[in-house]
Amino acid sequence: MSSSLSGVLQRHREDVDLSCPPAEMPDLTSLSTVLDRLPDQG
Predict the structure, then answer these.
(1) Is residue 10 scored above 80 in pLDDT?
(2) How much is the pTM?
(3) In contact, 18 and 33? CB cutoff 8 Å
């Protein structure tokens, strides 16, 4: 079964951990936010 890159990233985004809390980086968009905006490529 073939998976799109965005699908793979969405499944693994829970493993992403920032060493700096998001409150200290207000201008940085999280990976989760970016992936939620991507259209599903099915």
Answers:
(1) no
(2) 0.32
(3) no
